[in-house]
Amino acid sequence: MYEVQQLIDGVWGRGPDDGALVVLDPADNAEVTRVPEATEAEVAAAVKASRVATAEWSSTPAAARGAALHRVADLLESSAEQLAEAQTAEMGRPIGLARGGVEAAVGTLRQYAELGPIHRGRALAGNPEAIDLMAVQPRGVVAALTPWNDPVAVSCGLLGAALVTGNTVIYKPSERSPVSGWLLARLFAAHLPAGVFSLLTGGARVGAALASAEVDVVAHVGSSATGRSIAAACAVSGAKALLENGGSDALIVDDGIDPVWAAEQAALGAFTNSGQLCVAVERIYVLRPVADAFVAALARQAEALRIGPGRDERTEIGPLVDRRQRLLVDSQVRAAVADGARVLTGGVVPDGPGAFYPPTVLVDCTDQMAVMREETFGPVAPVLVVDSFDEALSRAAQSPYGLCATVLTGSMSHAQQAWRELPVGTVKINNVFGGAPGGAAHPRRGSGQGFGYGPELLDELTVTKVVHIAAPGGPAGRW
Hints:
The N and C termini lie far apart (66 Å). The protein has two domains: 6-245 and 447-466, 3-Layer(aba) Sandwich (Aldehyde Dehydrogenase, Chain A, domain 1); 249-429, Aldehyde Dehydrogenase, Chain A, domain 2, CATH 3.40.309.10. The chain contains 15 helices and 22 strands.
């Protein structure tokens, strides 16, 4: 078992174990760790320590802050297997994907280590006898609340950007992946002054306390429901809410596309990480001429995937994070079937321990079904057949979310139409995953607000101050 500790003002400790959260391995129900819930006093102490540390850290040269991030990245690189194994143990992620998440995290830290020192304001063209400029400064104390589904990579994005711009950080990883958060925090703390980086553990109560505390930014990646609560708390406190929340990402399969290739893309988008990705394919709209061949190929793809514990190198589909999540996924599938959907493959909770759920393909779906309207966050691919590309775009746009969408098409005019009309932050053409590094987008609607990635994240975590410097007046009015 892992002995997770909290970090407040440079001191590690477990705190009281009353009401400790138990984390089970979703593959076999073995106990992974027991994590204490931070008390109100511990939250207050972490905020106070972070506030005190802001003066020294914000005045530390940006190059020195970047160098500290490079040292953390070095440690993370050398500890990659330990971090990968922790992800697999606590949330079931196949070990290969977990290693990929750590690798992405290293790259993200190095990116911000380099971008931070060149993040700058600009000079203004005013009176030539004066100096006018727009200067950037850190916002202050950042509360970073991160998810369980990709705990290392996502955390390193927020933590790296916040720290390199001179903010202090209070880090609360998800209660479903506290071990990954604790291991990561140890690496950061090894190269940062006391108070600059704090770690608090616990569930929703701790997150709510942090969102309502006297912090300057609450950066949250997670569910839309939690994001709305954070936005409401920030409206009262005046803190900035930086939110990357849920999605129900659409995939459109156009006429004239190779249905087998399209099915491979759909399976990759819907089943990777057991569908537990913010940018997973959650609903599919396929043009009628290719629909039969596409759904048959998609069902074959789903049935061919190897299901097993994440620690097995051969596993392609691991368990869901826990049985609570499996119940949510299965309830959506059952509701869809009750409303007329047909299961081509999967859709049955397996016997035995753990939280496994098979890759599932549903057809005859409608827009009113929860699997097409809400975020399922599981290995489910619901399909709706449409008669035209315009109809597919129209149906895809009818969502309370606006995170991502993917379009598979051989028509440049359809590609242009799609990226212009779809009300989402990211549109991907002919590739469910991928893209150049450094891309940043604004999520729409219930999917959040603010840039969560790329160089623009540095802008979100700093404030801009206009400065006008003129010579003094009077007879001696010269410098």
